[in-house]
Amino acid sequence: MTDHTLCQAELAGTGSYLPEKILTNFDLEKMLDTSDEWIRTRTGIQERRIASEKESSSVLAAHAARKALESANITADELDIIIVCTSTPDVLFPSTACFVQKEIGATRSAAFDISAVCSGFVYGLSIAEQYIKSGRYRHVLVIGSEVNSRIVDWTDRTTCILFGDGAGAVILKQKDSSEECGLLSSHIYSDGNLSSLIEVPKAIGRIPENGNSDKFFIKMSGNATFKVAVKRMTEVCQEALKYNGLSRDDVDLIVPHQANQRIIDAVVKRLEVSPEKVFLNIHKYGNTSAASIPIAIDEAKRTGRIKPGCRMLIMVVGAGLTWGAAVIKW
Length: 330
Ligand code: UT7
Known about the structure:
This protein has helices at 25-31, 36-43, 57-72, 96-104, 120-133, 222-243, 261-271, 282-285, 292-302; strands at 8-17, 21-24, 47-50, 81-85, 110-114, 139-147, 165-175, 182-190, 198-199, 219-220, 253-256, 311-318, 322-329.
């Protein structure tokens, strides 16, 4: 194994929160020209969670954050930075992270949001990694939180069936150990030339060319996104393994972004990894965007899929286009 690090960045705590309300494929059948069979076979999704009127991204995020603090056995006062990864912020500004900071009472931390859509959590981890490994900070809270239900067009069957709401959080902690563990590496990429593949084209800071008719809904070229997602995620996973001197057999668990089970299956096949090593919860939650990976990590941890020494690969693709991967040793 190669040692690329100064300090170790341990994943000291995890937490997640899902709204109570469940919207099943059968419910969608009553709202749109779609079927449970189509959604299940094309995506793997059976149901998704929908936030209540009182639940914004900061509310979901604060629930997940409290659980992560509890599992890391630290107080909110010990946090140095709070990073919220979201495409559905409570308001344009202040940042959702500042609302979370207030809600959990993290009096001495810095707090900010980052925008990398579904890839947000891997981007957030990558930022946190730099602060921890450089020795600058001891505790960074990274949260992915989304209320996608507020930005989907509920009359568009090609997108609304895919998305759900939720939040997941992890605490990265500086570890005093020479043993190589924690977040080993993160790898993030973007290609702005592919920005129109998935977008919410509502103009805020730019004057729309077409008057004021931009949509406040997710628009997606599903098929084109599907193909580029498989290619980019396969490449970045291969890069992450190579960077750490690992072979596919060294990977114990893959926690992919839960966007479409067929995308995940295609990547796993290309990587030639056993499907049994893949953690899936897409059937329960659909695509929760930046929240998808931290929710899955928390569930994998709490259900015993992650054991000490487990080498985990996470991978993602999202609007931007953005994509990334990270390798974590527990
Ligand atoms: O979060 C990261 C970014 N997002 C993604 O990774 C999503 C990537 N893309 C996908 O997951 C898939 O492309 C979809 C699930 C969105 C669509 O699956 P597909 O196999 O690519 O279907 P398609 O778009 O090629 O559509 C096939 C047919 C079309 O009908 P025709 O033209 O063949 O008659 C669609 O109109 O399926 C139709 N269709 C539906 N039928 C029933 C599209 N959506 C639905 C629906 N129910 N909900």
